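Input record (one chain):
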Amino acid sequence: MHYITDFASGFMNLFQTGAKTFIGWMSSIVPVVLLLLVLMNTIIAFLGEERMEKIAKASSRNVLTRYMLLPFLAAFMLGNPMSFTLGRFMPEFYKPSYYAAMAQFNHTSNGVFPHINPGELFIWMGIAQGVQKLGLNTMDLAMRYLLVGLVMNFIGGWVTDLTTAFVCKSSGVTLSKKVALSSKSAETEQA
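The corresponding structure, as predicted from the sequence alone:
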């Protein structure tokens, strides 16, 4: 009987600890995430979808803007998983590489911008708690993670470009390297 009561007590302790963590987040990180989401939606509303499309189109022309600037803007403005939608403005050839860079950036920027990937915030919070216990500044770690992530995301996108070129060549598939805008944007540009 002792084992059963210990198990039940431990089981309930698990949920009590989870509730304490949740309440802690409600008074610390949740308001920050909420305000960052409001800021993001305000910026998108202010810029408009057509301007966002133009930014994405211009970013797709250069390897640095394609795998560093555009993923940063997409993650900051749209968060995960919506940030992947800016890939629709990429030429077909660069879509796999954009996806690779974007998938990595949604993780590496979470310490500085928690609204980007709130679903994985618990990972960052666990790491940050350990860093705080050591008496170190978590923002230093977050900035290093972000900066290393930017470089690694760029390398990941560029390597995926090389991989895509190899697969296209070996399979005889030709992917376009020109941006195909949506019909709404094409009509706007013609007017």
